[in-house]
Amino acid sequence: MAQAQINSIRAKKLFENGVIPRVKFEQAQTEFKLAKADLEIRKRALEYAIKNSAIRSPIRGIVASVNGDVGQIAGPSQTIIRIVNLRKMIALIGIEIEDIEKINVGERAVITIPNLPNGNVFEGEVIKLNKEIDPATQLVHIWIAIPNKRRFLQPGMFGAARIFVKSERNTIVVPSSAVLKDDKGPYLYVVEKGTAHKIYVKKGIQTDEYVQILKGLKKQQPVVVKGNYELKDGMRVRIQE
Q1: Is the model more confident about 174 or about 37?
Q2: Which CATH code, of 3.40.50.300, 2.40.420.20, 3.30.429.10, 1.20.1330.10, is assigned to 172-230?
C-alpha cells in the first residue's frame, strides 16, 4: 500500500502541474484506494485469526511449568506449558513380571508416602496394567488412580503400594521358602520315594510366608522347604516329621 500511496501523491502533483492527464491521476487514486481497502481486509482477517487462535487445555488444572517466552517460535513437538490436574493422581508402580497375573484392573490399593506431614496413607484403584518389561528396571508397570481432593499428593513423589488381590479357595499353597528361582523361572523340589525332583511351577498370589502354586504341583505332593538351596535333581533326601 505504501507504494500505491506514493504513486497517488506523485500523480496528484503531476496532474496539478498539467504534466499528466486526469485519467492517469484518477487511475493512481483508484489503485491507492484499492490497496487501502485490501490492507483493511487483511487487518480484519488477522484480528479474527488472533481472536480464534487460543489453544485451550483438554483438562482442567493448574499450570505446572512454562518452557517458553512470549513471541518465541515453537516447534510442533515442543512442550511450552505443562498443565496438571491434582484432583486425581496416578501412581506408576513397578512389580515383578511373575506377579502381573495376580493383579486385575479395579482392585483396591493402598499407597504409602513416607515423610508426608499431613498423613501418608492413601487409597486408590488399579486402572491399567502393562505387561511389557521396562528394560531399565526389569519390572512391569501398573497404574493406580488416587483421589487427591485435599492436594496432599504432588507430582514426583515416591511411595510404596499394597494391592488387595482377590482371594481364592481350594488352591495349592506352599511355604515361601520352598520356592526358588533360576533363569527358567520359579521351581521347587518334590520328594518321591526318597528322591528329590526339581519341578518348575507357576506362582499365583504371594505373601511373605506363603506362595500360591497355580501350575506344576499336585495336591498332597511333599515339597522341600529347608535345605533346598544345596539340592540337585535326583539327590536322595530323608523326610523329617
Answers
A1: 174
A2: 2.40.420.20
